[in-house]
Amino acid sequence: MASPMLDKAEILADLANLLTYCLNMGIGEGEEDGDSETWIQEVEELIYHYRYRR
User: Fold this and answer.
1) Which residues constitute the domain of residue 24?
2) CB neighbours of residue 39 within 10 Å
3) Do the Cβ atoms of 15 and 40 come closer than 8 Å?
4) Mean model confidence pLDDT for the chain
């Protein structure tokens, strides 16, 4: 079992990657429908990963 601090570090890294992805994709700046759907899928996968991997 991983330590709680490692889990927190992994979560922070995932959130940082998601934020970087959003900024690179220009989320909220007139993105294409496919881009916003991809972004939504990324968020859903991140939430699922966080909630159910324990």
Assistant:
1) 4-52
2) 17
3) no
4) 72
